[in-house]
Amino acid sequence: MTYGREPDDDRAAFQSAPRLLGRRAFLGEVGIGAAALALTACTPSAPSGRTAATPAAASQSEAWDRVVEAARREGSVWIYGASIGRESSDALVDPFEAAFPGVSVEGVFGPADQSIAKITSERTAGRYLADILIGPGSSGIPALKPLGVLAPIKPTLMLPEVLDGAGWLDGHLWWIDAAEPYTALMYQGTIQPIVEYNTAMVPAGTFKSYWDLLDPRWKGRIVVADVTSGGSIQQLTFLYKHPDLGPGFLERLFGEMSLTVSRDQRQSIDWVAQGQYPVGLFLSSSQTIAAASQGLQIAIVPGYEFKEGAPLGAGGGAVMLIDRAPHPNASTLYLNWLLSRDGQSAWQKATQQNSLRVDIPKDGLSPFTTPRPGGQYVNAGSEAFARIDDRTAAEVVNALVVKALAQG
Fold it and tell me: Are the C-beta atoms of residues 44 and 128 closer than 8 Å to each other?
């Protein structure tokens, strides 16, 4: 694997952790027929501010046409993203470039925390290179928003189909910020499953409430993924913050039920499928679904079957707009496209993860991780959800769980 050329020496420090691929290099890796990241050498112009051409006197269509033409003059949009590969390219690059010839998508993709660190270091150095950040959700707000790095998204939303709440789950856009100005938006919504079970030993419909897990018949018969690693923090926080569950429920679950904790997801899934433990908690949904598709006796309890509902996470489907970006019109164009029916259809098809748009087909998506209209779901990707008092939810919940396990 070779990296693409660096458009600016300032990006070299980020190269070792993320993967920065030239268009030809990427095509060579995934095949000519796959979508590719358009990465070309360029030197961003001086910060121009976010001033997309939308004169008040112009009609809506004329204003949109002006943005499109201005974006073509800018020539490209720079995206920092939290993943890379065929899925990212199919979802984020080719469909956009096909819809708007003359505007290329340039990309720097790597771990979310390092994307945030890169933008922070660039801003500190007075460098303005990124237009849009895709991937980080609530983790990006405390790091970037206080520095003035993030721009309000609402003023740049132009397409009626994007602004119309009827096109989105529960009739509204899913903001991540705890308060205005809204600078981060969640457009993917995936249920975070909590309970898995052996289909030969546990009848479907057994669990109607999370409290049912405390039934004495399950004592010593539940395997739980190692929650202290942080991988299940959204599910744990949901249980902790739910008014009908709370810390007391978690203390009893981890302190009284003689849980078996495993750090090996595959082993845990095998144990449930083989009946060694008829119930599993916080197991990988993708691996569980894959095991079930192979005929193993394991399934997920759908979130909608619990009277308390279920957490809904963004996964990698969150977007932030960078302030003082070098391509303000191209980023406005890209953001509106990404949130449109076409953009979300491309994302959903490529990633097989549910878009929060409810006006696009959901064919092929897992029913266990796809929310149903009218279901009870908590926005587990929000900034408010990620905090408890003045601490992060991870700090509070992990401390409680470790204490309960020690006492159990």
Answer: yes
- Separation CA 406–CA 408 (nearest Å): 5
**Angle CA 175–355–377, to nearest 5:** 60
C-alpha to C-alpha distance for 235 and 193, rounded to whole angstroms? 8
Rounded average pLDDT over 28-38: 28
Which residues have a Cβ under 8 Å from the Cβ of 13 and sit 6 or more positions away? Answer: 118, 121
Three-state DSSP state, 350:
helix
- End-to-end Cα separation, the chain, in angstroms: 49
**Which of 340, 366, 338, 335 minimizes the C-alpha distance to 353?**
366
Tell me how far CA of residue 279 lies from CA of 158, 200, 211, 312, 326, in angstroms.
48, 11, 14, 22, 52
CA–CA distance, 87 with 135 (Å, rounded to integer): 13
pLDDT band at 263 (very low <50, low <70, confident <90, very high): confident
Q: Three-class SS of residue 112? A: helix
The 8-class DSSP code of residue 181 comes to S
Cα Rg of the chain, angstroms: 23
Q: Supply the CATH classification number for the domain 9-189+315-351.
A: 3.40.190.10
Q: Which residues pair with 387 in a beta bridge?
A: 392
pLDDT at 26: 26
Nearest of 348, 346, 344, 341 to residue 365 by alpha carbon: 348
CATH class of this structure's domain 191-313+376-407: alpha beta
Among 202, 195, 206, smallest CA distance to 280 is for 195
Contact at 8 Å (CB) between 45 and 54? Answer: no
Is cis: bond before 367, omega within 30 of 0? no
The edge-to-edge listing of strands for the beta sheet with 318-321 is: 104-109, 76-81, 132-134, 318-321, 184-186, 174-175
Show me where the domains of the chain are located.
9-189+315-351, 191-313+376-407
Task: For residue 88, name the pLDDT band (cuts at 50, 70, 90).
Answer: low
Question: Is residue 86's pLDDT more than 50?
Answer: yes
